[in-house]
Design a protein that fits this description.
Largest sheet: 7 strands, parallel
Bound molecules: nicotinamide-adenine-dinucleotide, thymidine-5'-diphospho-beta-D-xylose
Helix content: 40-55%
Number of helices: 11
Length: 339
Amino acid sequence: MAESFTPERVVVTGGAGFIGSNFVHWVMENQPGVHVTVLDALTYAGNLENLKGIPDDRMTFVHGDVCDTELVDRLLSENDACVHFAAESHNDNSIVDPAPFVRTNVQGTYTLLEAARKYDVRFHHISTDEVYGDLALDDPTRFTEETPYHPSSPYSSTKASSDMLVRAWTRTYGIRATISNCSNNYGPYQHIEKFIPRQITNILCGLSPKLYGDGLNVRDWIHTEDHSSAVWRILTCGRVGETYLIGADGEKNNIDVLRAILEGMGKEPDDFVWVRDRPGHDRRYAIDSSKLCHELGWKPKHIDFAQGLAATIRWYQDNEAWWSPLKKATEAKYAKQGQ
Ligand code: NAD
Ligand code: TDX
């Protein structure tokens, strides 16, 4: 393995969201000596319930904004690493109103980078495969660290912008940073605006699942726990200045995933409705994670998608109190967009 870094105090931005909270739980379970400070603005996507059960002596929660220079300065000066998950994360929302995406994803990352520079804090930036644009369904290639940036949506263009800031700050100011671009995550605590939990909770509410376009768009699914283990590996062993792609060979088209959900919940395979397509809808994402696997020896644990999906369905069945308060407003937002 390349480099070795052992952080003791880590700031996790966006730690009350889906992937951030799963990462905090992963650190609690797998890195007993590490203290985490979560910085989260608790937007519509953040929920303190996601961090329930974590002991006070292992985690401090700070309710605040990544664009707040003073607060970010203070937190980074008191810690030795920062893993930056906080973002506006939903493509459909970015099409309706891009403003918070530019603010949080671009200005927020800039604010953190400036503090990382000032206090020489090791910085890991969480990004997405969407910065590379999309691939044709019959394209034999997959995204690698060398693929040129070609983002399609307001969301992915702000993530691409934030990646560029990290690269520039690394080269020009020599900050100790790495970037990871991961494929589509699934698992517990994912907001019900996203594809898999939206369809599961629709079925649980007696609503029809909703499929965009022709249903043939491909996403490369990874369990969020595997994303967490990869991020930790990069933070502690990755080479500063490098980008690593994270994926688990999970390419599937949307209609197959939806039919697997329907089948897993005892419904007919055609028990869904077609709705208006997403403007600019990316056709296919596919990640080649050889660099991460070969250089850092990382391996995903959840390689059986059917098993991971069944556990995810059970989680939403068992945690209705977590998601039901969000359902009406989420579906009302979609209805306005014809989706
Ligand atoms: P999420 O929307 O579930 O969570 C985002 C969190 O950030 C929330 O807790 C929210 O309150 C917080 N936040 C938003 N604006 C903030 C601000 N200004 N200051 C502080 N906190 C703020 O998102 P997610 O799906 O968990 O994604 C986390 C990260 O992973 C994002 O950077 C996203 O781009 C990236 N990513 C996501 C996926 C995916 O499949 N969901 C895949 C690859 C990369
Ligand atoms: O109701 C739906 N019906 C449908 O067909 C929804 C919500 C989505 N879809 C389609 C659109 C996509 O092809 O399902 C696919 C997945 O959609 P999302 O869950 O919105 O994810 P995606 O747009 O692929 O982006 C996700 O992965 C990359 C995350 O939201 C991003 O934060 C991450 O960067």
